[in-house]
C-alpha cells in the first residue's frame, strides 16, 4: 500500500481493480476543509485517462510492473508477434493494444514488454528510433522564411514534418513520445 501523499509521475497504482500510471498530480490545501490530492491517471489496460481526487493520507495499492526485453518479429493480419529475449517464447498483441507504437515499430526491433502479474499490458518503445523516409516531395528553395517544413512518410507509414533538406532514402531520428522529427541519423 502507498499513500497518495507519496505520488510521483510514472508511479503505477491499483485503483478499484484497474492498473493506472500517474501522469500528473497536485497537492491541494484549501483554506477551509481537508487537504486532498488531485491526480490524472492513465489506465494501462485500455489507455483511457481519468482524473481522480483522493483525500490526503488515503492509501491505495501499489502495482509492481515488470519490464522484459522482447523482439518484434512480424505482423500476421491484425496480430503482431513478439519473442521473449530470454525464454524465446512467442506471443501476440493486437493492433488495438499497439495503436500508437505501430507508427515506430520495425521488424527485429527490441522493445520492453510491460506486464502485471502475467497479464501483458503493452510495450515501451525507446525514446527515439531511426526510420527511413520512403516518400517526400523535393525541397524547393526560394520564398521561405526560417523553419520551413514539409511532410515525409516513414517506412512504418507514419507522417512527420521535416525540414526542406530531407530527401527520400534519408534515415531520421524520430521521437516516439510525440512522433516528431529530431534530426538525421
Question: What this model shows, in words?
Answer:
The protein contains no helices and 16 strands. By secondary structure, it is mainly β. The strands form three sheets. Strands 1-6-2-3-4-5 form a six-stranded antiparallel β-sheet, with no helix packed on it. The protein has a five-stranded antiparallel β-sheet with strand order 9-8-7-10-11, with no helix packed on it. A hairpin with a 2-residue loop joins strand 2 (12-15) and strand 3. The protein is flat and about 65 Å long.
Outline the secondary-structure elements.
Layout: E1 2-3, E2 12-15, E3 18-28, E4 36-43, E5 49-55, E6 59-62, E7 66-76, E8 79-84, E9 90-94, E10 110-116, E11 119-124, E12 128-136, E13 149-154, E14 159-163, E15 171-175, E16 180-184
Antiparallel strand pairs: 1-6, 2-3, 2-6, 3-4, 4-5, 7-8, 7-10, 8-9, 10-11, 12-13, 12-15, 13-14, 15-16
Domain Translation elongation factor P/YeiP central: 67-121
Keywords: Cytoplasm, Elongation factor, Protein biosynthesis
Pathway: Protein biosynthesis; polypeptide chain elongation
What is the N-to-C order of secondary-structure elements (H for helix, E for strand)?
EEEEEEEEEEEEEEEE
Number of strands: 16
Percent of residues in β-strands: over 45%
Please tell me how large the radius of gyration is.
21 Å
The helicity comes to under 10%
Structural class: mainly beta
Provide key terms for this protein.
185 residues; mainly beta; 6-stranded antiparallel sheet; Transl_elongation_fac_P; Elongation factor P; Transl_elong_P/YeiP_CS; cytoplasm
Amino acid at each position: 500500500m502507498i499513500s497518495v501523499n507519496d505520488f510521483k509521475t510514472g508511479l503505477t497504482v491499483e485503483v478499484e481493480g484497474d492498473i493506472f500510471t500517474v501522469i500528473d498530480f497536485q497537492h491541494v490545501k484549501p483554506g477551509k476543509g481537508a487537504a486532498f490530492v488531485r491526480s490524472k491517471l492513465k489506465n494501462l489496460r485500455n489507455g483511457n485517462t481519468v482524473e481522480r481526487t483522493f483525500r490526503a493520507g488515503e492509501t491505495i495499492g501499489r502495482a509492481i510492473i515488470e519490464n522484459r526485453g522482447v523482439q518484434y518479429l512480424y505482423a500476421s493480419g491484425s496480430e503482431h508477434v513478439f519473442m521473449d529475449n530470454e525464454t524465446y517464447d512467442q506471443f501476440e498483441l493486437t493492433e488495438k493494444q499497439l495503436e500508437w507504437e505501430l507508427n515506430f515499430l520495425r521488424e527485429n526491433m527490441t522493445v520492453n514488454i510491460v506486464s502485471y502479474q502475467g497479464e501483458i499490458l503493452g510495450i515501451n518503445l525507446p525514446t527515439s528510433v531511426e526510420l527511413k523516409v520512403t516518400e517526400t516531395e523535393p525541397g524547393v528553395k526560394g520564398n521561405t522564411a526560417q523553419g520551413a517544413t514539409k511532410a515525409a512518410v516513414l517506412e512504418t507509414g507514419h507522417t512527420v514534418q521535416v525540414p526542406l533538406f530531407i530527401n527520400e532514402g534519408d534515415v531520421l531520428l524520430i521521437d516516439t513520445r510525440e512522433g516528431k522529427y529530431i534530426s538525421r541519423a
